[in-house]
Design a protein that fits this description.
Oligomer: single chain
Largest sheet: none
Helix content: over 70%
Structural class: mainly alpha
Shape: globular
């Protein structure tokens, strides 16, 4: 992508000017919902067990939290395009059944992909963990050898590598929420396919953009509340996606190759 991360962040700050309070309100709704969700998860886990709590968390995350995240994406897209963006806009995907099921379908497909790929990627780490804990040898009725503990270190390394690889694979879909929010005529399958095509070129730039927010992420842990930082990141995400789509359109026009996906969408 021809636009630098600093230019993306500068444009994001410009888009936030005059809209920061509204964005903070939407961000606070997300944070509050997440806190309630995690609190219910812990409470249910203590009362009904981990399996029930995990099932509850997964269901509420997909059915409630993900459509709200999509709503924040829609709010951010409207903001960078200079359209009216009131906090109530964040409930866009709860406003009608069609929009709601589109958001849920996207979250289900993304979650399903992450789960399916993650099972295979984390399997070596789980096996090494079983060996290091001695459970593997107990099942075989064998004495735990002294070298088994070394597999604990290997398990940790494999876990980190699996997480990094999973994120890298899933980043090919990172444009899908933006595309759906920016063009309501796109269905989920089309948005994911377009995201895969564009992300081949722009995924590295997006990862670098995320890394440039490391200082803000650390500040969220120790100093600055998340509701004041998340609007900046969401705005930068939307701006980056807009530039990515526009850059792809220019390339497609020159090569006269793939379909053109409109970036300058008006509301």
């Amino acid at each position: 992508m021809n636009v630098s991360g600093s230019a993306v962040k500068k444009t994001a700050r410009t888009a936030l000017a005059g809209n920061y309070f509204k964005a903070a309100v939407v961000s606070s709704m997300l944070v509050f919902t997440w806190l309630v969700l995690t609190t219910c998860f812990r409470t249910l886990g203590a009362v009904a067990g981990g399996a029930v709590a995990l099932a509850f968390f997964a269901a509420v995350f997909v059915l409630l939290f993900c459509p709200l995240i999509m709503g924040f994406a829609y709010f951010s897209v409207r903001m960078i395009f200079g359209s009216d963006c009131e906090p109530v806009t964040a409930f866009k995907y709860f406003s009608c059944a069609k929009d709601y099921f589109k958001a849920v379908r996207l979250s289900l497909i993304l979650s399903g992909n992450a789960l399916f790929i993650g099972i295979f990627l984390f399997l070596p780490s789980v096996i090494c963990s079983l060996i290091s804990s001695g459970e593997f040898f107990k099942m075989l009725g064998m004495q735990i050898p002294s070298w088994a503990s070394l597999f604990g270190v290997l398990s940790y390394i494999l876990r980190v590598a699996a997480l990094a690889l999973l994120l890298t694979v899933m980043f090919k879909f990172y444009l899908a929420p933006f595309l759906i929010a920016a063009n309501e005529n796109l269905n989920v399958s089309e948005a994911m396919q377009i995201s895969k095509i564009i992300a081949r070129v722009t995924r590295k730039d997006f990862i670098m953009l995320i890394l440039s927010f490391i200082g803000y992420i650390i500040a969220c842990v120790f100093v600055i509340p998340t509701i004041f930082v998340f609007p900046y990141f969401a705005s930068a995400y939307a701006v980056h996606c807009r530039y990515a789509v526009a850059d792809y359109n220019k390339t497609a026009d020159v090569l006269n190759a793939a379909p053109n996906f409109e970036a300058d969408i008006s509301f």
